[in-house]
Structures are given as C-alpha cells and as structure tokens.
Amino acid sequence: MSQTNYIGKALNRVDGPAKVAGTAKYAAEFNVPGLAYGYIVNSPIAKGKITRIDAAEVLALPGVHRVFSHENVPMLAILDRSYKDDVAPGGSPFRPLHDAEIKFSLQPVALVVADTIELARYAASILKIEYEAAPHETDIETKRTKGFEPGRGKTGFTPPPPPRGNPDRELKNAVHSIDQEYVHGTQHHNPMEMFGTTVEYLGEGKLNVYDKTQGALNSQQYIRKVFGLSKEEARVISKYTGGGFGSGLRPQHQLFMAVLAALELKQSVRVTMTRQQMFSFGHRPHTLQTVKLGTNADGTLAAVQHHALHETSQFEDYTENVVNWSGMLYQCANVKLGYQLAKLDVYTPQDMRAPGAATGSFALEVAMDEMAYAAGLDPLDFRIRNYADRDQNLDKPFSSKKLRECYHEGAAKFGWEKRNPAPRSMRQGNMLVGYGMAGGVWDASQQKAGAKVSLSADGMLTVQSATNDIGTGTYTIMTQVAAEYLGLPVEAVDFQLGDTEFPAAPVQGGSWTAASIGTAVKNACEALGEKLLKQAQKMKGSPLEDAKFEDVEFVNGQLRLRLDPGQAVVIRDIVQASGETKMEADATAAPNLLKQQGYSLHAHNAVFVEVQVDEDLGTIHVTRVVNAVAAGRIINPNTARSQVLGSVVWGISMALMEETVMDHQFGRYMNHNYAEYHIPVNADIHDIDVLFVEEEDDIVNPLGVKGIGEVGLLGVAAAITNAVYHATGRRVRELPIMLDKLL
Ligand code: MOS
User: Fold this and answer.
1) Which residue among 550, 580, 710, 734 is the active-site one?
2) In ligand 1, which atom is closest to the CA atom of 353?
3) For burial by CB atoms within 10 Å, which of 51, 107, 382, 603 has the most?
4) Whole-model pTM over 0.95
5) What are phi and psi of 45, to 5 degrees?
6) pLDDT digits over 619-651, tens only?
7) Can you tell me which residues the record assigns to a coiled coil (predicted)?
8) What values do phi and psi take at 60, rounded to 5?
C-alpha cells in the first residue's frame, strides 16, 4: 500500500460540529415561508375498498385547505411503470391515492392539508371514510407449499446458482447430519429521523424538494416521472439523513403526497410521518429457512442445502440474496440452494441492512454451530476446516479474502480458547455464561458515479457529488480522499452532497458508496491535477516545466517532483496564475469490469460473543462482542468502527428484541410503535470490540475499499444464538430470542 497522508487516518467527522450545533437540518426542518402541513390517513383494513369518503366536516374547519384522496387526485403517470424508482423490484409499484382499492393495512388513503400540523392531524382524525373489507391473507404459514421462484428481481438480485455435485446423496451418506428450520419475523427499519418531505413552492410549478432519502436522484426521477416535471422544476435536496438502513432507498409515499399537494395548492407543503406511520411501508420480510448439512468423518462438509421462503406483496416481487452465501462461505462440492417468495396482503418488503445476508447467515451459521456439535468439533475449528479459498458459486478466486485472519485474530482477542465446549458448563454466580461465534460474507460492489472538484484562488477545494450520507461518514471520508489526491489540508476541502444539481451518484446503499463515490472523487481530483500541472508549467521559471503527470505529486499544498521534492509550486499560486477565480474538473468512475471479471469480490467478518443468561429469569445480556472485519482498505478507522459498532448493536437487536408482530385476524401489525417494537437502549449494550484485518486489493477498485456499512452485521445474531445455546443448552431457532424461549 502506498504511503498516504489522509487515507487511513482517524479523522473526526467533518459534519460533527454541524450536527452538534443543530445546524445540520433534516428534510422536515426547512422552515420555508407560507408552509402548509399535510397529515396522512391510513387504512384500518388490510384488503378491500373504500366505499365512501365524507370530507365535508373536515373542509368546513377554518384553516383546512384540502383533503386529497383517490376521488380528487388528478390522473398521474398513466403508465404503471412511471411509478418505478431505481430500486423497485419487479411488478407494479404502489400508487398512493390512485384508486379505492386497499392492498395492505396502514395503506395511505388520504392526505389532509391545513395551516398547522395540529389542525391537519385533528382533521385527519375526524375524516369519515367507509370501507368494505375483503378476506385477506397475511400469514406466511399458509403459503409454505405455495412459494414461487421470482422471475425478475431488483438490481443486485442474483438467483441461486444451480445445484452442484450430488447434494441429496451426499447428505444421506454423511457421517453426521442436521436438518433444521430457522425463522425470523418481520422487522421494520427505525431510523432516528422519520420520513418527511418539505416542498418549497417557487412558483410556476418549480419546486425545491427537501426529502428524507438515501438517494436524492432517485427521489427526483420518481417525482419527475409521476408528475411529469423537468429536472429544473424538481430539484431534490438531502444534505443530512438521520439513518436509513435501506428504508430510504426507495422514495416513500410522503414524498408523493407533499409534491402532489404543493403542485395542486401552488403552495409550499410539508408532509411528515409519525413513528407509527413508519410501519406503513417496507420491512425485512418474515422468512422461513431450512438448512441441511452433512459432514464426512474428517469434519469436512459433505453437503450443504439451504432453502428460504419469504413474503412479498401482491403487487411487487421483492427479492434479496438469502441463500447464495451458503454456496460460497464454505468449501463444499455438493450444494443445493433454493429461494422462493409468497404473496401476501402486506406492503412490499424492502432492503434492510445487509438484506438477505443478515438473515441467511443467521440460518447458515446457527446450522454450522449445530453441525459442529453433532460432529464433535469446535465451531471455530469446524469453520476453518471448511474454509473456502475460492468462490465456488462463481468458480472464481476471491480478489482478496482475509477471513482466516479474522477467525484467528478475533478468537485471540476474545479468548475463545478459554471456552469449555460443553453446553451449560460455564457460569458466574447465577448467570450461565456462553461463548458463540459466527461469520459472514457480503458483496464488495462499485456503481457508476460522478464527482466535480473546484479549486478557488484562495486554496479552498469544493467537491460535489449527488450522493448521501446516512450517518455512515461519507462527508468525512470523501474529504479525506480529496485531500489525499490533491495534497491539500482537510480544512481546505469542502465536500458537498445531497443535491440533484451535483454530478450523478447512485443511492447510498449496498455498502458501495466509499468505492463508488471515492473513485469518482479520486478521478476528478486527478483530472484537476493534470490541469494544475499544465497551468504550473506555463508559470514563469516553472521548476516543473518538463514534468509528466507521473513525475509529480500533490503534497502539503504543493505540486512537486516526486524524485526532487524541492522542485515545487504552491497549488494556490497556480490557480492565481491562471487569472481565473477557480479551476474545475469533473469525472465519473465505473467498475473496471475487465480487471474484475476473473474474481469474486467480497468482504468478510467473524464475530465472537459472550452472553450471560440469568438462570432463573431467562434474561440475556450480551456482555462481550469481538467483531473482526476484512473489508479491504479502511479509509477512516473512526467512521468504519462506528459502522461496525452500529452493526453489532443492530445484530443484538435482531437476535433479542426486534419483531413486528402481525394480528392475522386484522392483517395489521400490532406493535407499530416504539413502546412495543423493541430496540436496545444504552443499558442493553456492553463491551464491543471492533478489529479490522486490512486487505490490499487493487482489483475491487483503485482505492482498495470494500465498504463497511453492512458486513459488520453478518453473523452477529447467529453468534448470539450460538452463545445462548452454549450457555443454556437450549437451541433456539426462531428470532427474536425472548426470555419465554428459554424458560
Ligand atoms: Mo442498505 S439495505 O443497501 O441501505
């Protein structure tokens, strides 16, 4: 790895002061003049139709502007596909306020717009809507034999590879085998910032749209298609996002509502969701998985079989990669993977942090633990015995893979060797102590993205890209990348994002932002660097007169000869000498497919967990976690560590707390609120240790980064489940592990 000045350094968040001082505004915090407020009304039934809406009483209230419903919303985007967004799966996206049909409980059916949010909310509460209910089906248990293989999926969906070897025969002939079902319920994203959109009406149909999203361009393209707006008419701005976890990948219905109302009323409008309404769209789907494993006498895997069935809506085929990982995480010649969907009367599921892998690795890695016990092997040793040096799904080598180092370094840091393998053999007073471990694999992707750089004569560099920062640290690491490649102090770099007027970038998701935007920023900096060199060579008595671009470097605010650093020009002086107020360059970056085609590109992790379970009460405390992550080069250990800490907290939550419970009689989520949908508080979180095993990898992308937003979650829930087994001797196969499952 080449010597760096900024990349790899633990820079504090550059957006930290703005967040602490309260100047970092979320979408619903832009107080534009003349703002009206919209409140969304949700359906109490899961299926059927609206038979009558009586808005007379509501409209008579002074200060109420309008009640929007399917009865008065103009015909929009006549072609179904015009509601498609970048991240839409196959099918026909839900069209808010389009017709009388009810497709899921909590479906938005009306928008009341008034002078104040209080009035809008009150008016919504007395709006009379009558429904005719039809029988609904919301229970996946009724669909066990009715699953189907999705034909089309959203971007990033890879159907499971065909079977290899003879998985049925080898499973039957195995010395030891297991065959178990693993289940987790529905989970909802609960980012700190709830969904909200402020539309500033600028006149003549022109809008500034402040939206909570993970992709300003995706929101812009959606409203452009639905409302027939030009780029200039619909600028979308999203500077700060208070968490996304996938919920903001697709435009949500408050965006539609706010734009509709602003265009119809010719007025600025804000629509926000309540915490309860955050359960009215997208979720991690309720999933049933079966894993069958068999081992040979030497502890190698004889066969791996993994099947998953999860719910989707009636109108879209939501897909995620649940089982594919089971064909690549371990070496095995006999593999069979299956993946099916079942249609229910629920909203379309949506990507949630490490979609598919977080849940697939739960099933696989608990099964691996069960298999290790059945074969009389240590769970870590069992994994190392079956280490995959090659991606057998793709039949390609990995561009880099330091999972082995993650196993060893993680185990050493954790003290795995102190583990007594027998379940229920370790205790501290009244607490049963258990050690568990698991691992995971996630994609290292890069998407096409653009960036623009502009260096002013006072030496300040502005960098722009229409990406987002959902809390991941994009502002900070892109500042570091730009500082690195133009040799400027980080204080001289202003990285700007979240504006559709900036160069195009994909949604922030898939852990691809560092690789995608990072490479674009690098390319833009190098394009400007070449211009700076040319300009420097025109300067009188330039010491760089005969230099080629390869001969120079940008360090400490100077452009200088690599081999003779004394021969230098101050970068700021170059801009001044140009006679212009600034020098600019832009660039795009896309994955180098030629370089990558022979390789499998993936990040990995290994998680070690200690739990303490109260023998009498069944309460579970995750007292220690070591998460060892191999995700290429780490641009900033601070922000990367934060991502993994967040992942571990999320994994604890997934293992022990989170589940949206459906009352199938009503087809309605019962706990759609923070009182009953549980997530951890500080008191639930104890010691978490994050360890990075860096990899040198110039195949994934020129920066050598693999992305860190999702990989840290993998294996956490499984490691906790395995530790609970080790502590108690009780094997739980259904998340979340509430104490009733241990008593
Ligand atoms: Mo992530 S689920 O791609 O935001």
Assistant:
1) 710
2) 2
3) 603
4) yes
5) -110, 160
6) 999 999 999 999 999 999 999 999 999 999 999
7) none
8) -75, -15
CA of 355 to the centre of ligand 1 (A): 7
Residue 366, H or E segment? helix 357-375
Query: What tokens does 507 get?
Result: 């949604």
Task: Check if 351 has its Cβ closer than 6 Å to any atom of ligand 1.
Answer: yes
| 396 and 306 together in one domain | yes
- 352 within ligand 1 shell (Cβ under 6 A): yes
* Coil, helix or strand at residue 583: strand
- Please give the structure tokens belonging to residue 161: 């590879």
Cβ of residue 434 lying under 6 Å from some atom of ligand 1: no
Whether residues 314 and 365 share a domain: the answer is yes
260 and 293 housed in the same domain:
no
- Alpha carbons within 13 A on the beta-carbon side of 197: 32
Tell me which residue of 521, 581, 454, 459 sits closest to 701, measured CA to CA. Answer: 521
Our count of domains for the chain comes to 3
641 lines ligand 1 (CB under 6 A): no
Q: Is residue 1 part of a domain?
A: no
Pair 245, 131 in one domain:
yes
Which protein residue's CA is at the shortest distance from atom 3 of ligand 1?
Answer: 509
Task: Note whether residue 3 is domain-resident.
Answer: no
Q: Which residue intervals of 447-570 are DSSP H helices?
A: 474-486, 513-538
Ligand 1 center from residue 54 Cα (angstroms): 40
**612 and 672 together in one domain:** yes
91 lines ligand 1 (CB under 6 A): no
| Nearest atom of ligand 1 to the alpha carbon of 355 | 2
Size of the chain, expressed as the number of residues it contains: 743
Alpha-carbon span 534 to 547, nearest angstrom: 9
Residue by residue, DSSP assigns 188-219 as ----SSPPEEEEEEEETTEEEEEE--S-HHHH
The residue segments making up the domain with residue 452 are: 16-23+446-590
Check if the beta carbon of residue 295 is closer than 8 Å to that of residue 177.
Answer: yes
Instruction: Check if 191 has its Cβ closer than 6 Å to any atom of ligand 1.
Output: no
**Last residue of some domain: 567, 590, 613?**
590
535 and 677 inside one domain: no
Q: 3-state SS string over 463-499? A: EECCCCCCCCCHHHHHHHHHHHHHCCCHHHEEEECCE
Is residue 475 domain-shared with residue 497, that is, in the same domain? yes
351 alpha carbon – ligand 1 mean position (Å): 6
Name, in order, each residue with C-beta under 8 angstroms of 368's C-beta and a sequence gap of 6 or more: 293, 330, 379, 382, 383, 438
DSSP label at 407? Answer: H
223 & 241 share domain: yes
Residue 357 has pLDDT above 90, yes or no: yes
Distance (angstroms) between ligand 1 centre and the Cα of 699 equals 23
- Does ipTM top 0.95? yes
Q: Locate the ligand 1 atom nearest the alpha carbon of residue 511 and give its number.
A: 3
Q: Is the CB of 443 under 6 A from ligand 1?
A: no
User: What is the per-residue pLDDT across 39-68, written as a single tens digit (0 to 9) for each?
Assistant: 999 999 999 999 999 999 999 999 999 999
Res 380: pLDDT = 98
**Structural domain ending residue among the three candidates 274, 300, 325:** 274
